[in-house]
Amino acid sequence: MNATDPARIVLVGAGGMGGAWLRVLSAHPQVQVVGVVDLDLDRARDLARSAGTGAPVARTIPEFDGGADAIVNATVPQAHLEVSVAALERGMAVLCEKPAAPTIAEAIRMAAAAQVHGRLLMVSQSRRYGPGVAAFAEAIRAHQGGSPGLLVSEFFRAPRFGGFRERMRHVLLVDMAIHAFDTARLLTGADPVAVYCDESNQDWSWFDHDASASAIFEFPGSARYLYTGSWIAEGAETSWNARWRSVGAGSTIRWDGEAQVTVHTGAGEGTDEGEAVPVPPAAEGIEGALEVFLSALASGQTPLGEVRENIASLAMVEAAVRSARTRQRVEIADVLTDGLAVALRTEDDEARAAVLAAWSTDDGAPVFGTRTIAGQR
Ligand SMILES: NC(=O)c1ccc[n+]([C@@H]2O[C@H](COP(=O)([O-])OP(=O)(O)OC[C@H]3O[C@@H](n4cnc5c(N)ncnc54)[C@H](O)[C@@H]3O)[C@@H](O)[C@H]2O)c1
């Protein structure tokens, strides 16, 4: 692909999120939508028609008859591995909806496939992108050297989704908390070491399983990230991005999850108001993810959000679920080690298995996170 040519992109998955993606892709001057793929061909056809793309449709990537630089994978998480690998095998890069996969093991196998085929596989973790989070991160860098001692997020909302979410186990942790966990990694530039998590479901809940959770993540040294959230909290609801507080030596920085970031210094009760920091415009949500993906395709640079970097966010979810189940502190390294072992057991492609074997070490857990992202490709 020439850096100035539009990227030829196939949208895979024509459901709720696929519709949002097609609008964003169609509106982008550097993107040409060259196909819409869904197991439900009528759905693919309807979506392509409604967006006026006139792009050809197909049921699967192997059945798609055309060339493309990349796909956006907006299928259900259970299909992310199969769809992403099919695209990588055909030389296409992949921008995959979150979560990368339902399990760490599958996400690790996707990462191995990206390495074998030498193509970018990036996870669209959409709440990483936006003016508020960018300004909050910048304030943490400027006032706390980028490493707060205590980071706290509160997520309290009361959605009535109906459908599968109200029947799902670990619904808050698996379906929603990954956004906050991933943001915590983005803000600190570090990966956690361990977690203790408690889940609960209050007696007025309209969810079958735990819709509330609190977790304490240990980061290297004495740094801690405290998450608390609930999906059955009516009244005074927070932003979907949660409400945040970052505490460092001599300062506290608050973000309301939207466009308000304030820096508070000095001791005492008169410090509540704080000083507002500027919040410059920035691409938000999936538009932000698309911008990062397109510039990575054009430059060949590995972006933040590349699948190996994202695995650490997925590991935070899996570790929190394991901790809540066992009521024990869980080390992230154990979750990664177990995930890699399962990936090795279940991978039947020789080249990908060789990559996985190379990631196994005798002296501790494999490291996929932010700390190793530079220079691995
Ligand atoms: N970023 C966000 O805020 C956000 C919000 C909602 C959903 N999501 C994510 O987006 C993804 C899709 O969610 P959704 O709500 O649109 O789901 P959905 O069920 O509405 O749509 C999924 C579509 O994928 C198709 N599909 C399934 N397997 C396929 C396969 N193997 N090949 C081709 N098509 C296949 C289905 O037929 C369906 O049309 C999920 O990963 C979800 O977690 C992200």
Task: Give a written overview of the molecule.
The protein has 377 residues and is of the alpha/beta class. The chain has a domain at 130-276: Dihydrodipicolinate Reductase, domain 2 (2-Layer Sandwich), CATH 3.30.360.10. It has ten helices and 15 strands. The chain has helices spanning 16-27, 41-50, 80-89, 104-117, 131-144, 171-188, 285-299, 307-326, 332-346, 350-359, and strands at residues 7-12, 31-37, 57-58, 70-73, 93-97, 121-124, 150-156, 194-200, 212-218, 224-230, 243-248, 251-255, 261-265, 275-276, 330-331. The strands form two sheets. It has a nine-stranded mixed sheet. Strands 3-2-1-4-5-6 form a six-stranded parallel sheet, sandwiched between helices. Strand 4 (70-73), helix 3 and strand 5 form a beta-alpha-beta unit. Helix 4 (104-117) runs antiparallel to helix 8, helix 4 (104-117) packs across helix 10 (350-359) and helix 6 packs across helix 8 (307-326). It is globular and about 65 Å long. The model is unreliable at 369-377 (pLDDT under 50). Residues 12-18, 37-40, 43, 60, 74-77, 79, 82-83, 97-98, 126 line the site of nicotinamide-adenine-dinucleotide (NAD). Nicotinamide-adenine-dinucleotide binds at residues 12-18, 37-40, 43, 60, 74-77, 79, 82-83, 97-98, 126.
